[in-house]
Amino acid sequence: xxxxxxxxxxxxxxxxxxxxxxxxxxxxxxxxxxxxxxxxxxxxxxxxxxxxxxxxxxxxxxxxxxxxxxxxxxxxxxxxxxxxxxxxxxxxxxxxxxxxxxxxxxxxxxxxxxxxxxxxxxxxxxxxxxxxxxxxxxxxxxxxxxxxxxxxxxxxxxxxxxxxxxxxxxxxxxxxxxxxxxxxxxxxxxxxxxxxxxxxxxxxxxxxxxxxxxxxxxxxxxxxxxxxxxxxxxxxxxxxxxxxxxxxxxxxxxxxxxxxxxxxxxxxxxxxxxxxxxxxxxxxxxxxxxxxxxxxxxxxxxxxxxxxxxxxxxxxxxxxxxxx
Length: 324
Prior knowledge:
Helix content is 34%, strand content 15%. By secondary structure, the protein is an alpha/beta fold.
């Protein structure tokens, strides 16, 4: 009962802080975040061309999160968290201690996003029995040519078999695990949307149709879908720009930070290359970083000129009429 009261009180503090900051510019963070993203690793087995990790555009050091660091984060934040994502850049199931992270986060709504290449029968059974709340599996094409155009070095049949394995394990153990198929829509695969809808129904999964984030402007025309609702970008003055008007507010800065594999605290999931490090958990507590001067200054900059911040220029927060 006491723990529930603490979590609910923190929830209302967080909400009022964000609303007060957005409407009045007064920044007060006497609470803890409601959700966090944790990067188990930024290594990946695939080479997706518009992914910071897979395309080798990432300049920061590669590595695997130390389980002791993860436990330190949980010790401080678990009384307040409604949700924890065990992914950021890279493939989380690539971590040799992957299931230890899932086990240690039991009791918190926990989500994994995977490219689906490690969902063997054995791993699938361990997942459905682990207490994981939701498994997101990326599937960006239903034949090898379409799929591997983006998921380079990947095998569509391996992913389809993996989804089947998880669905069957869920049925076998009467698991409450939610399965979501994520389909990043591009010019190459948008014609397969009706088929992937049928596939999701077959495996009793939800389907998320996502607009494609494109890092290299010269590549946008090669990927951008025909249907407007799936386009994150629009033509303006002879070039492509994001449709987002980038309003001077963003809930992510008040509610859901990201922690890299080596303990850096980032403002949000769009800081792929850790260019805006708010602090280091190897040196300070999370609360010290969350309430520290770097965070206060960065939040203020969001409220006064979000369009000036580089990581915001591909952001979907505030983007309307588009499948994000």
